[in-house]
Description:
Blueprint: H1 3-18, H2 21-27, E1 33-37, H3 38-48, E2 53-56, H4 63-74, E3 79-82, H5 86-100, E4 104-108, H6 112-120, H7 122-127, E5 132-137, H8 157-165, E6 167-170, H9 177-188, E7 197-202, E8 209-214, H10 232-244, E9 248-252, H11 261-271, E10 274-277, E11 292-295, H12 302-310, E12 313-317, E13 337-342, H13 345-348, E14 354-358, H14 361-374, H15 383-408, E15 411-414, E16 419-422, H16 424-438, E17 441-444, H17 448-456, E18 465-467, H18 476-480, H19 483-486, E19 493-498, H20 499-504, H21 508-514, E20 519-525, H22 530-540, H23 554-559, E21 565-568, H24 573-585, E22 589-595, H25 618-628
Parallel strand pairs: 2-3, 2-4, 4-5, 5-7, 6-7, 9-10, 9-12, 10-11, 12-13, 13-14, 17-18, 17-19, 19-20, 20-22, 21-22
Antiparallel strand pairs: 1-8, 15-16
Amino acid sequence: MNIRKMKRVERAEIIAESGSVTEGIHSGKLKQFQDISLSEALVLGLLNQGVRKYVGIFGHGTTDVGEVLRVYQDAGLVEVYNVRNETEASHAASMLRWQYGEHAAVFTSIGPGAMHAFAGSLLPKSNGLGVYYIFGDETTHNEGPNMQQIPIDKQDLFLSMTSIMSGSYSLNTPEAVFTALKRGYSTVCSPLGESPFFFHLPMNIQGKVMENMNLSELPIPAKLSDKIKTSEECCAEAVSLIGKYKKITIKAGGGAREMEPDVLKRFLDLTGAVYVHGPQIPGILPDEDMRNMTVGGSKGSISGNFAMENCELLVVIGARGVCQWDSSGTSWKNTKEIININTRLEDALHYNRSLPLVGNANEILNQLNEALALAGADPEKDAEKKSWLEDCSGKRQEWEAFKGDRFITSHLFDEKWGRELLTQPAVLNEAIDFAMKVDAVKIFDAGDVQANGFQAVKDQRPKRTFTDTGSSYMGFAVSALLASAMTDRPDYPIAFTGDGSFLMNPQILLDAVQYSLRGMILLMDNRRMAAISGLQEAQYGKVFATDDQVEVDYIQLASSFKGVKTFDGGSSLIELRKALKSAYEYKGLSLVYVPVYSGADPLGGLGVFGNWNVGNWCDAVQKEKHRIGL
């Protein structure tokens, strides 16, 4: 071992013993000025920010980073998870932030690996999650095309690509690391909206040593306050609007996920509003609450869409107005004015006729609650506001009956399979009830499972359901399970997935065993992309190239991974219930397999309640949007 490597080992041991770089320097055990390579400086800088989990795949573009991480893992300072797919790594890091609040770094080599992780970064970007990415990059001497770089004679092409997505920095000189770390922190930890950040490390620079580098120059993160309120003038105007209208609907999106349930409940009580949530945040208001009209949008509910289409005043909280969230803006057919609470001005001004309240949702709701209470707001004395609640409650009862018909219709004949199969709503309802009974976290994959899933959930508290409706990434749910193996205090997770999404990222079958994950995959197989088949049928009356004829023995496939336990969900709800119980009792990763019906029978799904700007609906949707004028 050379002297520099010996010093690295000593450095790591001192930092581990001291508890941090800063404490090591203050104790006198760690010299402030030392010879440090770029790779090690980056790991030290991220350690200052609390980043101790690294997940990804090493390649020829990151061997030096790997050597640093080896030493620091041996010292107990970091944990490295080498997985089998870079997109899986991105999903796991995103879920670690989303579910457990921990920051992680995704590492990849140059070329295709970085491309895979970059594709995966669409998920944290769409859902407002801070994740670091460390990409190997082409050398700065340009001695010839580096293998796997983009084969075009231009500089920094990967940097150009990632810079479009989010914050990025090319470390083409080691001394740039200090600025890169500052920019990274302000991106992944921004109280105005977290976002991914990309470090690009040229292969010939990673091992470059900064002589007498000042360890105290590595930035120490400041505590960033998210207690951002609106102005008193805007608050007063919002109170005036709330007093002016009788039919008020609150629609909350993923940006409201940290909203405190008690604060929201008080706001509802003071305004007389009803509540509609996006698919990402069920449970902030308990499902059973009388003001909860559940999910709204094109894959929403009868009650949610009624509350959206008939409100006079809309209060948006933490949402970007994604196309299916409000049927491309056409859900607001009778809305006169809007109060829009968001951290970003561009989101707060998404609709016309809006009063933007830019800041933290919780802080602004507290501010409004105080002002409404001082103004003597009492919707219980307002007959029109009480009538609005009664009308919406009637629609909620209608929605419950609608779901109930589908939950009790447990079997339908499937033409492709040539026999009766369990219906997806019945399977989802059974599995959701089971998850609530054992307090498991539900993670829904993209497609039909996702859409029917967030219509069926009935959470009584927040953060028991996760679904990527920001980018609708197939394969997210099963990959996201790995986050529960990476954290110190895991929930028990259940990934709800279809056959299509599962085959996008089946690597979890290996990585779950490698890292002793305890969790479950519920795989619902209809041998098609049912969400798109249904959309094709609704739009054009024909299904095309969205199904297959290939029979796959998923139980045998999963069983071939030693350590994965498989269970046949059977052909009845009783058999499914037993399989779920047995799968939950297993101490590793379990998989429950269930064939489910797909077809034209309306009892086979939970319905679509609005069009949006896609396919041959576009002209009608755009015409309606312009008529509404939002």
